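Schema walkthrough. Field components (list of strings):
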Amino acid sequence: MITIGIDVGSITTKAVMMKDGAVVSAKVINTGYNAKNAGETVLEDIISEVRIKRSSIERIVATGYGRNSVPFADKTVTEITCHASGGRYLNPKIRSVIDIGGQDSKAIVMDEKGRVKDFAMNDKCAAGTGRFLEVMARALEVDLDDFGKMSLGAKNPSIISSICTVFAESEIVSLISKGEKRENIIAGIHNSTSARVVAMACRIGLTAPVMMTGGVAKNIGVVKALEKKIGHSIFVSKEAQVAGAIGAAIIAVDSI
Amino acid sequence: MTNKETVEDPEKEKRKIKSVKKMKEIMTNYYIEAKTADQTGKKIAWITSGGPVEPLIAMDVIPVYPENHGAMIGASKMGVDLCEKSEEMGYSRDLCSYARTDIACSPINGGPIGGLPKPDMLICCNNICGTVLKWYEIQARYYDVPLFILDTPFCHTEFSIEAKEYVKKQINEYLKFLEMVCDKQFDYDRMKQVGQLSLKGQRLWQAVLDTTVHQPAPMSAFDAFFHLALIVTLRGTQIVVDYYSSLLDEMRERITSGISAVHNEKHRLLWDNIPIWYRTRWLSEKFASHDACLVADTYTSAWCSSLKYINEGNFLDTMADGYTKIYLNLGVDKMAEHVIEMIDKYNANGIVMHSNRSCKPYSFGQYDILKIVKEKRDIPALVIEADMVDERSFSESQIETRIDAFMEVLKARK
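Field assembly_structure (string):
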């Protein structure tokens, strides 16, 4: 049985194809201006890569902020349920998921059976999200892929007190002009991001083992900062960025 | 226009509450009377929503509620313009949006009814919040009218004898204040009747709210938000008694004929905090699309919470208790107790809390209340961050995702 999960996020759109309970293929593209187009494009991409007929797909589930702009989806499910389900697929032992995506961060706590027990999401503020890190990387002229690694060498992480992306950026500009080392500033950014996420996660009773999903899981600096704050290690899968789409593809199987 | 647009959905028509029309008439007449008070010679008092209105009614003063006005501004989506206007005047965006829009309306006669009628006096009771003190001081200076402040100490754990004496003393001062401003003796006989009518109205309102104990509920909290206006503004008059009697009849009829607020009610939720006035319809439809009905709320029931403290034969003497021990003037433990009582009474299987940027006393303890509630009753909770009037604090896609996810959690538990 072939199912597809499509996760239309604010920055990237992800698609995962599953066949008989296993991931066959995953694709990530930029969402861009038109979420509807992004959903179609990523579907075409994955179909042409795997070389199957569209008619052999039994069911498609859409998730993410743009979930309602995927007209060909059979069902929509929120990213909370999808990340929980995708997280459990990647590691059946986990009880909590911290998902940091483009425009929001979430903490999800599950019961023993993997059902969502409680969740929390960031408020109307981009601090503590992928977009925040993107803006900061640009301000520091560092490639986003190097951003995480660079912070690991920091000796004295800077203190970033602003909780607003725009003001944090100006705080960083002033740190740069004072000659502060890049790695210290980046480490400070990671600390401030994780502080916000951990505060939110603790509010709903974060339970170990914890997994991190979403695009920001690729940033080792944030993962380390989170681990330090919560006091134990965090499981990160290679497929962290597509965990939501995996969850959607699994839910597609369950809902047939 | 196509045929489809002209034909009303019979299912939807059936669910409409018939009393709404009458209610609109009453509120229109009330505001017309208030706005033409300068022609009839009646005095106008602006009063806070939790303030003791009965002595005003007994003195034939028309009470006007800036907070009710604020709700109207929110519902007519005029909040943002007025909030911005107040910010131009120098008020912080962190200030309550009822206060901001009210202050902004005064110099420009803004809002859906062209501003409130000019007050002859202001009555401020701080049992609902501390913001009202400064807000009413500002308005007292602006209109150059006398201000009476009734200070009701916060009941962290109890309402002490000393505190009660303190409030009682102020109630006597309140009556003297009214005699001075109205230039006539206080009518104690009339006060007795008003007190009785007030309690009668409150009992009927509670009875209306209690019809939702029935499953499926004949009305939802969204309906209660609308019908609430009378118990707030006209408490102590026969109008309220008559209206709620007929509303109660309508609700009982709906139960008998099987008409529910939400078609196919599967989930029963409890709402906490002031409504998001500019989005009540959107929220109501959103929850209904998930077969969920908001069957009760901590907000509309606050106007009958003094019932257990006030003695019908001795209204004036027991007012201190009734007006001090209201929901927002209690410690978190008591509030949580009240929420749990409501969950049990209305058989709610989820709780939705509006973390209201404007209303600090209502929103501040919410996470603690949730913690207590979750320890005692295993039900999921959703927190929505928004504001009652200022639409700039409402993010649709975020809130939609939270509601959808919350409903997925609820459905998975069933």
